[in-house]
Amino acid sequence: MRLLPTSGPAVWALDLDGTLLGPDHRLHPDTLDALVRAHDLGVHVVIATGRILAATAPVLDALPFVPWVVCCGGQTVIAPGEAPQVTERIHVDHVADVLRRATPFADVAVQLYWPAHQAMWRSNDAGEHLERSEGLAFERLATLPDPVPDDLIKIVLTAHDEAALQLDGAFRGALPYSYTATGSRYRDVLPRGVDKGAALDRVLARTGWPADRVLVAGDNANDVPMFQRARWRLAVGERCPALVALATERVATNEGGAVGRALSAWLDPSDR
Fold first, then answer.
1. 92-191, which class in CATH?
2. The pLDDT of residue 6
3. How far apart are the first and last CA of the chain?
4. Predicted confidence band of residue 161 (pLDDT cuts 50, 70, 90)
5. Deepest in the core among 92, 115, 233, 249, taking most CB within 10 A?
6. Structure pTM?
7. With 50 as the cut, is the pLDDT of residue 3 above it?
8. How far is 106 from 108, CA to CA, in rounded Å?
9. How far apart are CA 197 and CA 184, in angstroms?
10. Per-residue pLDDT for 1 more than 60?
11. Distance between CA atoms of 90 and 35, rounded to whole angstroms?
12. How far apart are CA 33 and CA 3, in angstroms?
């Protein structure tokens, strides 16, 4: 096995939904081929997703190798063959604040994630779409558990586009937690300072992989912290202007294996 390229990207940190995964939430054969070839040539592949580990597992099962994984928006890092390492839990007081802010928006659902369990407070179509796409079963809550278990790792707010924009007005600003768009309909609430970029820093520090030879690919605001750290930055689509502004390269769509073919070009610099 050889490390290729000798001066190009040696680490690929790649988002899943909207990036590696197509609209059918699967890896296109061209994308899978790019990942396998990269791994076989010595490129270090890191899957970096907003999904929790249980929802990431079906994608990982499709790979014939075991990558490093950053999931739950940077909350959890998994080294091959090791147990997941959770950075920080969401403070129970913040759960109450999130629900207080979300309550006036009748068409906003709230999904709560613990390490081995997930629940939904007030369902809607957007939340049910997330449930289907991630293949998870959610307990339906009429009220929150009292007390709220103190190992909560993530909250997701789901709404259709217009309601999501209205929701932003109630959440953006000085908050004791992180609030980030992960799609037109989804907003993640995580502990402050937890993001994909900080998690990528932890992976690089532990492995010793070259921080100046990182390529990242993503499509939304939760990928911005990775883009801010990487030398090569592939933006997929144009839904996030901040991400597009940071990109060194762009691909218009995640459909039909387009992202996989764009990544494959890095494996043979003569094709670029």
1. alpha beta
2. 63
3. 23
4. confident
5. 233
6. 0.92
7. no
8. 6
9. 21
10. no
11. 33
12. 17
For 11-86+194-271, CATH number out of 3.30.1360.120, 3.40.50.1000, 3.60.110.10, 1.10.10.10 equals 3.40.50.1000
CA distances from 232 to 4, 33, 92, 159 (A): 15, 20, 38, 32
- With b for 16 or more beta-carbon neighbours within 10 A and e for fewer, the 151-181 pattern comes to ebbbbbbbbeeebbeebeebbeeeeebbbbb
Backbone angles phi, psi at 18, to 5 degrees: 85, -5
Predicted confidence (pLDDT) per residue in 130-139, tens digit: 888 888 889 9
| Residue 43 identity (one-letter amino acid) | V
- Exposure string of 10-29, with b = 16+ CB inside 10 Å and e = fewer, is bbbbbbbbbbbbbeeeebbe
Q: What is the pLDDT of residues 96-155, one digit of tens each?
A: 899 889 989 888 999 999 988 899 988 888 778 788 888 888 999 888 888 888 889 999
CB 67 within 8 A of CB 203: no
Q: Where does CATH 3.30.1240.10 sit in the chain?
A: 92-191
- As a whole number, the mean pLDDT across the chain is 91
